[in-house]
Amino acid sequence: MLLGMSGASETRSPKPGALNGFEETVKDFWVSRPRRPHSGRKLAGVAAAIGHRYGIDPVVVRIALVVTTIFGGFGVPFYLLGWLFLPGESDEVSGFEGLIGRGRSSVSPAFAVVLMVLTVLTAGGSISGSWFDGGGLISCALIATALYLLHRSRGHENRPAPVAARTSNPAFTGNGAFTMTDTAEAPSPARGWDPLAADPAGWDLPDAPSAQEPRPTPPPSYRAPQRRPRSKVGSATFALGVLTAGAGVLAGLNGATWFDAQHIVGLVLGVVGIGLVAGAFAGGGRGLIGLAVPLAIVGMVLTTSPFKDFDVRGGVGDLKPTPQAMAELKPLYQHAAGDIDLDLTKLPVGAPYSTTVSNGAGDTTVIVPETADVTFDCRTGAGNATCLGRESDGVDQDSLVGTDYGSDGPGGQKITLKVSNSVGNVEVRRD
Asked: What DSSP character marks residue 38?
């Protein structure tokens, strides 16, 4: 009612159609960040804030954080970031902004510093590989993409109202003392006293000019943002990108060594880039930015260690070969994802033999005879490698190369092994 009397117009919340680009979406997310509620929280209220902001059950958000903590470890630093950068329900600013003097926050400056230190430590641990072999990069990209898509689709709903900054009470001065305003009327002259010796009833004084009330300024007319027509450039580019990805995967599965994971992502990203250039001239295609950003993140992850050697060829699932004759031993055991358990103890003693085991994602174990002379080359892009007494752990470690003659010394069955994993543990042991 007061807004209507003053002529102010209500500000409407932007709708998804009004967010025309990646930069605008990110800015709007920051302006309308979720606020951590006082009720319904388990710890700091980060999951409850995201759930209430985008109309999701907070339990789903908590489960997602637990999953990303187990598989990648980024759930913990993300929660700390939310605690640091999401303001409370009754706060003017977030804890970090309160630390730099932007306003009032329930998070004290000292605790904000503690949150910053914990965030750096946990984020470094999840990305460096000590937590699920470097999967923090993947979980970080998934969380960022999920938040971006949520805000694009539901950012206009449940927008939190800003908390007004506290102002000092006009009844007090800066030193805390009351400011007294004298509103008492001046004492009227004594009855019967007239300094002009004239009858007051005969005075004829001009009336004081009345102050003209200012006319209220009419509110500016609000024009709803017009939704741009859907461009055919975006749809055509998306379809062409899907076809390119499918063709690359089929070529890789059929033996084309060039079509590995990073090259396929690079091809799709190139198609999206062409679509963005075409959209800049023909108009439209801005929605492709939302596809280009996660593709660029995935491509960066795949082209850096430990994922640069990831191979999409081979099957998916667990593989447990136990060859019992030389004719059954394959020169190459290749798998895209799953565990490989190769048992060489059933092979008869004879001529020297060699085999190669290549696994994309999963654990690989090779069991060799107790007295065999084994020359090995073991490597994993991310994980633990244990090969006949030698061990390495971490991301992009050097290969373990050497020869082990067993408990009886030289003179046993000669075996040459080359075992490589992209992500997962590698073990060569005797039985």
From this structure: S
> Rounded mean pLDDT of 306-317?
56
Domain co-membership, 35 together with 150: yes
| Residue that wins the pLDDT comparison between 310 and 392 | 392
Q: Which helix (H) or strand (E) holds 364?
A: strand 364-368
Domain count, the chain: 3
Q: What is 285-331 written as a DSSP string?
A: -GGGHHHHHHHHHHHHHHHSTTSTT----SEES-B-----SGGG--S
More confident residue, 69 or 354: 354
How many other C-beta atoms are found inside a 10 Å radius of the C-beta of residue 113? 14
Residues 6+ apart with CB under 8 A from 96: 84, 85, 112, 116
Whether 177 is covered by a domain: the verdict is no
Between the alpha carbon of residue 123 and those of residues 86, 139, 270, 323, the distances in Å are 18, 11, 31, 44
Residues 146 and 37 in one domain: yes
Contacts of 76 (CB under 8 A, 6+ apart): 69, 122, 126
**pLDDT(340) > 70:** yes
This prediction's pTM: 0.39
Domain with 52, as residue range(s), is: 15-154
pLDDT of residue 168: 45
* pLDDT tens readout for residues 188-199: 444 444 555 555
Q: Is residue 94 part of a domain?
A: yes
Same domain, 292 and 324: no
Residues 290 and 401 reside in one and the same domain: no
- Residue 74 burial by CB count (10 A; 0-12/13-18/19+): exposed, middle or buried? buried
* In contact, 68 and 143? CB cutoff 8 Å: yes
Task: Of 19-23, 37-41, 112-116, 158-162, give the lowest mean pLDDT range.
Answer: 19-23
pLDDT greater than 60 at residue 141: yes
